[in-house]
Amino acid sequence: MKVAIYSNDGSTSNRVAQQLKTKIDESKILEYDGLNPEIVISVGGDGTLLSAFHHYNDAVSKVRFVGIHTGHLGFYTDWRDYEVNELVESLENDNGQSVSYPLLSIKVKYSDDGPDDNFIALNESTLKRINGTMVTDIYIKGEFFEKFRGDGLCVSTPTGSTAYNKSVGGAIINPQLNAIQVSEMASINNRVFRTLGSPIIIPPDEWITIVPDNQEHNILTCDQLLIHNRPIKSIQYSICNERIYFAQYRHTHFWKRVSNSFIGVHPDD
Ligand code: NAP
Ligand code: MN
């Protein structure tokens, strides 16, 4: 089985990545292959897994990811830095077990002459404006829904719902649900301007189109990537046809992960 390692630059991560590489080289079953891996092991935090996902973006449905965390427990990372031996053993006994989660499809049309763009996000995409209020029309399934005025919008996946989306008051979605969420950032609401004011959750057969009033000075992100400085005509968000796969050798219940991360250790633990 072909395995790649994607590590951040921290000293613990480097040490763990080196240990892992040695173990893979020693193994008769595992083979290191950074170019065409079947398994990608990310070493670091959730941010590192996000970078690994974008690095292997083109092969997203062919690989399975595994996350080792070298800091605090993460949402995409199940293994601790001192568990390298157990992880290698699990890889050697792999029988293809996996769990998959939805991804966000982002289709961007520009008002310049350049080509349109398609991206996929694992956490979220945001659209923000740097100078002045962002004013955009929002359509759901092609039907006008509302005119938004405020700082910006965040469109997230279920696994991304615990990231930026949570900070802007979005709901946490169990990633067993195939859905995307749109949450507002500081919308302006008064007698003149009105938005719904609460996050909305979109099923697989619907899509969101965002059309900015002013095509310039918008900032579009896709996970930790800043997309472009080009004038945006419209953005279409939907659930991606592809999903991300994780090699599942152990299972942490989603709500337990949420409670451990945000509330603290439970007295029963
Ligand atoms: P970062 O600034 O290190 O990330 C911010 C925090 O978000 C880190 O603690 C990171 O965990 C955590 N995180 C990432 N994905 C998560 C997830 N799915 N569920 C829960 N927490 C998650 O930058 P980064 O590590 O490159 O991550 C990029 C992400 O940061 C973006 O996709 C966005 O979701 C998030 N972000 C949040 C805000 C905000 O809340 N105001 C603003 C900008 C970006 P690790 O320490 O394990 O990496
Ligand atoms: Mn980070």
UniProtKB/TrEMBL annotation:
Keywords from the named record: ATP-binding, Cytoplasm, Kinase, NAD, NADP, Nucleotide-binding, Transferase
TM regions (residue ranges): none
Substrates-to-products reaction catalysed: NAD(+) + ATP = ADP + NADP(+) + H(+)
Enzyme Commission identifier(s): 2.7.1.23
Active site: D46 (proton acceptor)
Residues spanning the signal sequence: none
Residues annotated for NAD(+) binding in this entry: D46, G47, N123, E124, R149, D151, T162, A163, Y164, N165, K166, S167, A186
Example GO BP: NAD+ metabolic process
Localization per Swiss-Prot or TrEMBL: Cytoplasm
Record bears the keyword Ligase: no
GO CC entries: cytoplasm
GO MF assignments: ATP binding; metal ion binding; NAD binding; NAD+ kinase activity
InterPro entries: ATP-NAD_kinase_N, ATP-NAD_kinase_PpnK-typ_C, NAD/diacylglycerol_kinase_sf, NADK
Keyword Repeat: no
EC supergroup of this enzyme: transferase
Major site of localization recorded for this protein: cytoplasm
Reported cofactor(s): a divalent metal cation
Cross-referenced NCBIfam families: PRK04885.1
PANTHER family hit by this protein: NAD KINASE
Family label: Belongs to the NAD kinase family.
Protein's job: Involved in the regulation of the intracellular balance of NAD and NADP, and is a key enzyme in the biosynthesis of NADP. Catalyzes specifically the phosphorylation on 2'-hydroxyl of the adenosine moiety of NAD to yield NADP.
Protein name: NAD kinase
Native source species: Apilactobacillus bombintestini
